[in-house]
Amino acid sequence: LPKSSDTAFRWGYYNSPADPDRQSYTQVLEAFLQAGFHIEGSSGAGTQGLLRTQYVLVKRSS
Known about the structure:
alpha+beta, 1 helix, about 60 residues
């Protein structure tokens, strides 16, 4: 484990255009960014017409 006090989250969701909650997913991501987190990686994989988007969010201690 890293000895620094960095904080990292892996956060993902299914990004379906028909999902009425899709707007709230964007708001959660924006809240992370406003709290000082940075996106250090993202990946997407499609299954059954859904695009699963996954982000790695890291907050540096310094």
